[in-house]
Write a structure and sequence with these properties.
By secondary structure, the chain is an alpha/beta fold. It is built from nine helices and eight strands. It has an eight-stranded mixed β-sheet with strand order 3-2-1-4-5-8-7-6. Helix 2 runs antiparallel to helix 9 (205-213).
Length: 219
């Protein structure tokens, strides 16, 4: 896919993708007026044992089925093409090299994830490569983020005048984005499937049928 000059990036395991992911992406793309937002399923998530993760081909296809022919939301198989563990730093460096320094990249993640970002590979360098768009998560306090960024990432983070986030010395921003909080999780969906219970209306119908047809999450 050819990237526009402003591009949203939504990485994750997507095991499976559900309406929580899709609605957040829709609202971020609309709020930031992004010409495109890519879902990027992880090939091999670094923080999970391989046996715990459904094969990439299944997760990629479910993501494609969920997104369909959306005008803005797209699906990239970038991390599945790369051997070994799927490190976000490698993905951002590759995209930055491919699209150049003027492209505005917006990496989307939850407040829970950014507060654990010290466990990510080369985590401080991430904030020099892309803007970060932080989504609220139930049970997490966004007022902690400023102190965390200054302590764990760079002491010279500055709060934006708008109160919408923080500015890294590189010029990249960490932005808060309010979205509709849907209390749906992939873990919950997998548990329901194993228990033989309905997952209808938690994810797109095409994805539900795909899971049942391929007998995913039964073990």
């Amino acid at each position: 896919m050819k990237a526009p000059t402003r591009l949203g990036l939504f990485g994750g395991t997507f095991n499976p993708i559900h309406y929580g992911h899709l609605r957040s992406a829709e609202e971020v793309a609309e709020a930031l007026r992004l010409p495109q937002l890519w879902f990027i399923p992880a090939g091999l998530p670094p923080h999970k044992a391989p046996a715990e993760v459904t094969p990439f081909a299944f997760r990629l296809e479910m993501t494609r089925l969920a997104v369909g022919r959306h005008a803005v939301l797209k699906v990239s198989d970038l991390e599945g093409q790369r051997p070994g563990k799927s490190y976000t730093i490698q993905t951002l460096r590759l995209l930055r090299e491919q699209f150049g320094p003027k492209a505005e990249l917006y990496y989307i993640l939850g407040l829970d994830a950014i507060l654990e970002i010290e466990t990510w590979k080369d985590y401080r360098d991430l904030f020099t490569l892309a803007h970060f768009v932080v989504l609220d998560r139930p049970g997490y306090d966004r007022s902690r983020l400023g102190e965390f960024l200054g302590r764990a990432i760079h002491k010279d983070f500055q709060e934006l005048p708008s109160g919408r986030g923080f500015l890294h010395p590189s010029g990249q921003q960490v932005l808060f984005q309010e979205t509709t909080l849907l209390d749906i999780s992939a873990t919950q969906i997998r548990r329901l499937v194993r228990a033989g219970r309905s997952i209808r209306y938690l994810l797109p119908e095409a994805v539900r049928r795909y899971i049942l047809h391929n007998k995913l999450y039964l073990e």
